[in-house]
Amino acid sequence: MRVAPSLLAADFCNLRSQLDMLNSSEAFCLHVDVMDGNFVPNISIGFPVIKAIGKMSEKPLDVHMMVNEPGRYISEVRDCGARLMNVHYEACTHLNRTLTQIRDSGMLAGVTINPATPVAMLEEVIDIVDLVLIMSVNPGFGGQPFIKNSISKVTRLREMLAR
């Protein structure tokens, strides 16, 4: 198992010390949630903050774009120093194109599915994905109750990957 702490839970008044602690941890990478207030109701951090985090972090950044049309931001995410750009299946009109463009930009491509989205929806893109994030809460808010069917979705994803 690899751990990717979400910076959404960080104390942004003490971001430097929080990043110093994470830099000395066993964390695999740092998960950065970007919310636009449209795809999800909340707004989180933007590219200037992500770029600053990238300069302070010794861990790779996994930028999780909870935004409409995330393909518009591929170069900005890359320029912030992200190693992986993670987009929502539900937010991409042309998911295959977006994932290919992410990979072509030099980043790893991740795809996220919401709790109500079946794993089967990834079947046509699974061969070009480096990471799948199965949401166990509805995107946009921290501290929600865990949605239990997420566990069975992981099993179905593993079966898909085995095929």
Largest sheet: 5 strands, parallel
CATH topology label: TIM Barrel
Structure class: alpha/beta
Radius of gyration: 15 Å
Q: How do the strands of the widest beta sheet line up side by side?
A: 1-2-3-4-5
Give me the strand/helix succession.
HEHEHEHEEH
Task: Specify the helix fraction band.
Answer: 25-40%
Tally of separate helices: 5
The proportion of strand residues reads 15-25%
Low-confidence stretches: none
Would you report the number of β strands? Answer: 5
Summed over residues and divided by their number, the pLDDT gives a mean of 94
Shape annotation = globular
CATH superfamily: Aldolase class I
Task: Report how far the terminal alpha carbons are from each other.
Answer: 22 Å
CATH class: Alpha Beta
Please give the structural blueprint.
Layout: H1 15-23, E1 30-35, H2 47-56, E2 61-66, H3 74-79, E3 82-88, H4 95-104, E4 108-113, E5 131-134, H5 149-162
Parallel strand pairs: 1-2, 2-3, 3-4, 4-5
